[in-house]
Amino acid sequence: MGIIRKTESIKLLLTEFHKKKVAVSVTDLIKRLDSKINKSTIYRVLEKLEEDGVLHSFLDKYGIKWYAKCVACNHKEHYDAHPHFQCVSCGKIDCISMDLSIPKIPNREVFVAQTLIQGKCESCIS
Amino acid sequence: MGIIRKTESIKLLLTEFHKKKVAVSVTDLIKRLDSKINKSTIYRVLEKLEEDGVLHSFLDKYGIKWYAKCVACNHKEHYDAHPHFQCVSCGKIDCISMDLSIPKIPNREVFVAQTLIQGKCESCIS
DNA sequence: CTATTATTGCAACTCAGTCGCAAAAATAGA
DNA sequence: TCTATTTTTGCGACTGAGTTGCAATAATAG
């Protein structure tokens, strides 16, 4: 169902994603917005923004949840076909605009494929 | 460094992977071997077997840790280039023997790519 | 402005995974 | 085979991400 009322928490969280082009981890949001929004609220708002196709989520290599702005997603088609890149040095994650074709597998019906690429980002290559 | 001594726990855990070709979640192993091996020991043994290149690990769509037997891995080259397939109905995970090429990305140094494919397995397609 | 309904904060909880430490088990060497 | 050494195990307590129920608060319709 998603967002019905425009609340302060929702505005604050949307601002976080407007000012950053990269993905943001929920744990990071909780730390930074601690004085302003409750942890449960953060989880609940992000969940709704994902339902609305505003954000998409995925887990990093540690199983931590991240969110990023959707560009081509909406609430009908929300497949996150693009891969995510996590820097092993600084931990930062970017959405890579690259359309990895979802592989077909015999005898199985494939819905989604999530790819997490690991390596060093531009700033961390010394 | 990996396994140094052949203990009962190690034998038991190796048996679990010999009799199954599919991946096994740590939580499942803990439930099934509860009376025989302590939870901490299970985590520690699996970690060592991964160091030795006997098993490889990955996280499923819920962030839960799974292990599977390595076929072409060893302690020097341990890249898990193959994708994993998780059935959204029964939760079972298989290693798919398909060599997805690791994508190259401009300005970044890429080490590993992990792909989790989601869909319905043969038994769950109705 | 008020009634209704969605949203929030709070505190307590769940559950996977980790850690320190003393006890037990495996191995090497005599 | 026995003993000393070192690894491995079990235990219990802990950590930290994410969830839940509920009462209080805030947004919206009318």
Give a brief rundown of this model.
The structure is a homodimer of 126-residue chains. The first copy, chain A, is of the alpha+beta class and 126 residues long.
Strand content of chain A: 15-25%
Number of strands of chain A: 6
Largest sheet of chain A: 3 strands, antiparallel
Structural class of chain A: alpha+beta
Radius of gyration of chain A, CA atoms, in whole angstroms: 16 Å
Describe the structure.
- 2 copies of one chain form a homodimer.
- Chain A is of the alpha+beta class and 126 residues long.
- Helix content of chain A is 25%, strand content 25%.
- At the A-B interface, strand 6 of A face strand 6 of B.
- The structure holds a DNA duplex (30 and 30 nucleotides).
Topology:
Two copies of one chain form a homodimer.
Chain A: H1 8-19, E1 24-25, H2 26-32, H3 39-51, E2 55-59, E3 65-69, E4 84-87, E5 93-95, E6 109-120
Parallel strand pairs in A: 4-6
Antiparallel strand pairs in A: 1-3, 2-3, 4-5
The structure holds a DNA duplex (30 and 30 nucleotides).
Features:
three-stranded mixed sheet, homodimer, 126 residues, three-stranded antiparallel sheet, alpha+beta, DNA-binding, 25% strand
